[in-house]
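To whoever is covering the structure queue this week,

Two jobs came back overnight. Logging them here so there's a record in the thread.

Job A:
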Amino acid sequence: MRTIKVPQSRQGKLVPVSCIAAHESMTQLAIGLYDGTVLLARGDLSRDKFSNKPPRVIHDQGSPVTGLHFAQQGRDTALYVTTISAVLSYVTSRGDHKETLDTTGSELGCSCISESDGMLWVARTEGGLSSYVPEGRGGAVVFDGKKEKMTWFRNYLVVVSRSLQSDGTFNKMNTVTFYDSRNRFIAFVAGFTDVTHILGEWGSFFVMTGDGKLFQLVEKDFQTKLDMLFKKSMCVVY
């Protein structure tokens, strides 16, 4: 176990931590605060001396930090930072070189890293999905509804959203969508009431709702998928 003390704000008050990220090598730890500060600690998390090195401020722009993600881009290590008002990247392996990728940010929990290519994906609350690399913007996907959560599972972007009703209000039920970003198609859609947490683990995907229920989603194997398509006449055989 390691303990890192988060420095107090300039006003001498404790600021809540909004998000945290650790590099897979366990040599870098990023901490995001609600006052817009990002702290970066370097060292070896497995050794006592790590806690003796105070984290350093690498970002301080006043807008609450909503997401932190490490990604390996060749030899460089990038730290993506999303706030309410911006999307940025810091190349922590080259003196914390900073790039402002977008002047529109995202809400808490509405960003993730694609495990297949290390791209950052950001879901706008009432807009589409945008992707980024450390040097700038990537592609974009039109995606309706109010986005509330986002994560990556296997080859899919998983988005929790609410659809807009005819009376101008948002549906009380959440929609969980699995989107294949590489082949650009929706693989699965399901409705859940009041989604509070989403998590992919042990080869399955879990959805927790506000009434204390936990749902497990298991992806069918490839042959079963083909059999379903044949039965529904949704494929062409040459």
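Job B:
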Amino acid sequence: MKNQFIISVFSENKVGLLTKVCSVFTRRNINIESLTVSESEIKGVHRFTVVVSVEEELVIKITKQIEKQIDVLKAFFHRNEEMVYQEIAMYKLPTSLMLTGGSVEKIIRSHQARVLAIEEDFTILEKTGHKEETQKLYDLLAPYGLLEFVRSGRIAISKPMKEFKEYLAELKIANAY
């Protein structure tokens, strides 16, 4: 049975590593639902956050394959309930909609969206939350003439208390022998 998994990959910041990681999914014909890459809490180490829907046996194999890549330090997979995660979405609307004080304003307030910029022709809103939450706001604002919409990939932190720094220390000790 397919489940959604979040794969966290910790690596050195090397050119071409993203291609190598993505090729693991491509070879197995697995669609990446979300991909985010950023710095981690350790200087010089980057974190890939990849969301996929696959069987558990397959995510185990994928994670092991990713770890075999040069420059990958460690890869983990988690179920959604083992992570705290969010996405961010931005919406551009005509400013004229904001000036009426009507239903658009009520929608924005009820979804706790934040106004980032107000220009003469457009207003930009921000909403953080799960994909379903940002999509719901999109669905409500679309009939009013959304000018632009963008949603980020998922960012996630695991609930288990063992930190990556501990895994890195274990890796250094294991490599010393």
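Note for Job B: The longest helix spans residues 164-176.

Please reply-all if you pick these up so we don't duplicate work.
Q.
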